Amino acid sequence: MRSVQILFLFLVSLTFQAQEYFPKNDGVTQSFKNHVAITNATVYVSSSQSIEKATILIKDGKILEVGTSVTLPKNATIIDATGKTIYPSFIAMYSEFGIEKPQATLRTSGNFTPQYDSNREGYYWNDHIKPEYNAFENLKYDSKTAEKLRNIGFGTVISHLNDGVIAGTGTLWTLNDDENNATRIIQNKVSQHFTFNRSNFSRQSYPSSLMGSMALLRQVYHDGKWYAEGNSKTKDFSLESFNSNKNLVQIFNAGDKLNSLRANKI
Fold first, then answer.
1. What average pLDDT does this structure show over 177-186?
2. What digits encode the pLDDT tens for the residues 109-136?
3. Which comes out higher in pLDDT, residue 244 or 13?
4. Half-sphere exposure of 1 (CA within 13 A, CB side)
């Protein structure tokens, strides 16, 4: 029997709480949501356990029930999946899929002049520290790349800009061609990202070494604590973002095993 993989982009919503994105217009609104039932499929509920002739009941983008004796609500949309095998999709935890990158700064010998001060006002003094950068604000869905990812089993990705010592936040979204970005996004901010590398979008000279990147990161942690204690007379949007992002998953692209140990100490 031919086995066809159907990727479910809704499974991760069992773990991450989805958000509301569109306000309701004044006047009469539709208050109900139809159920969708996928029936007669072989459904894998884990890597080793499957259910034959199973039904999957879905409402509001969430799976309510999976089994062989699911009671279907009235007016549910039924999809007959006889002969199909359904697997949950993989989640790509580390990706730059869909990120719109700013224009890179040229660093050729002909026009490079050392830059020591930040170009930004109201942000951290070092331009390679960018915790305020949010991936969900810089997304452009690429249907061709999404199709390639779905074909190898991925249905959801965490996208981020892998650039800078502190690279900002990543967003969790689905590879769904039928929806716009707002309804694809499961969680705006899910992770905060770090590297030991300078940003390609700044000409600021410091840090110029691995030791300098480590020292800069330590300084950010000290400055963040100092700022959170109310010691600053001026606003720093970078430190505010850094402190608020500490409750997210912290992901460090260290580059190799020794750098992983260095990152862990920081």
1. 83
2. 445 566 767 778 899 999 999 999 999 9
3. 244
4. 10
Residues 6+ apart with CB under 8 A from 151: none
3-class SS string, 198-217: CCCCCCECCCCCHHHHHHHH
Entry field: residues in the chain: 266
Q: In what order do the strands lie in the sheet with 90-95?
A: 90-95, 154-159, 166-174, 185-195, 249-253
> What is the CA angle 115-117-123, rounded to 5?
135
Q: Rounded distance, CA 207 to CA 1, Å?
A: 59
pTM of this prediction exceeds 0.90? no
Inter-residue contact 223 to 169 (CB < 8 Å): no
Task: Dig out the tokens for 246 from the structure.
Answer: 């500490």
158/97 Cα distance (integer angstroms): 8
Q: At 244, is the secondary structure helix, strand, or coil?
A: helix
Alpha carbons 142 and 151: distance in angstroms, whole number = 14
Query: Tokens in use for 240?
Result: 């505010």
Mean pLDDT of 8-18: 39
CA distance 13 to 170: 17
User: In this structure, are residues 155 and 135 in contact, taking their beta carbons and an 8 Å threshold?
Assistant: no
To which residue do tokens 């600053």 refer?
A: 232
- In a 3-state reduction of DSSP, which class is residue 225? helix
Q: Which of 83, 91, 49 is nearest to 67 (CA)?
A: 49
